[in-house]
Amino acid sequence: MRILIAVRAEDSSVELAQALRADGHACDQVASEEATAGALLSSPFDFAVVDLRLGAPPGPTMIGRLRAKAIQTPILSLAISENPAERAAALDRGSDDCVGVPVDFSEIRARVRAWTRRAMGSASNLIRHGPLKFDTAERTVFIEGQQVQLSRRELSLLEILISRRGRFVSKDRMAEIMFGWGEEVTTNTIEVYVHRLRKKIESGPVRIRSSRGVGYQLERITG
Question: What is the CA radius of gyration of the chain?
């Protein structure tokens, strides 16, 4: 997924971004309510982690202001206080989830994984596609019981394809999800990663189908 991290403390923002990138996500960072709204309105983020301290004024009303701008991106709010009423208010104003204080990065990562599962239409960490098994929590891939070693980018690409299995995904959309601001990426870059992934997973009935001008699709060959 491509995730926006809107956190006030720069060191915390950097640390969280590094952790989520290690989980295979592309991350961008902002540090104000105005920048949060601008980013979510201008870029196709799949998820946002929003520190309620960034609000002007701070607190759950920030989420209401973002939703009033027709921002539909799923939001995980980071609470300011231990008061459960604050978390309830954030949810009522449009947060999809809210984490209480003290904020723990391992919990945020777990909640992002939970959202990833829901986005894939699965209640389990284990996503299956024919003989291919993808564990979204452990970030491991097995084909017919044998583990396949994939790089972070290759895992990200596979996650995009398996979450949209049965549908074509364009190169531009892949680039939007896999890479953050300032990263150099071209359609040729995507083709390189698709080629690498094909070499590692196209055994048996699993295939990455391409359609010129349309994109790529993960399919299972039967018969």
Answer: 18
Residue with the two structure tokens 């996650």: 159
Record the pTM: 0.84
- For residue 17, what are its two tokens? 């971004």
**Domains in the chain, start-ordered, CATH in brackets?**
2-118 (3.40.50.2300), 121-220 (1.10.10.10)
Report, in this order, helix, strand and coil percent for the chain, each rounded to 5: 40, 20, 35
- Classify residue 95 as exposed, middle or buried by CB count within 10 Å of its CB (0-12, 13-18, 19+): buried
Encode pLDDT of 71-121 as tens digits: 999 999 999 999 999 999 999 999 999 998 888 999 999 999 888 888 777
Residues sharing a CB contact under 8 Å with residue 125, sequence separation 6 or more, in sequence order: 113, 117, 135, 136, 137, 138
For residue 78, with 0-12 CB atoms within 10 Å meaning exposed, 13-18 middle and 19 or more buried, which class applies?
Answer: buried
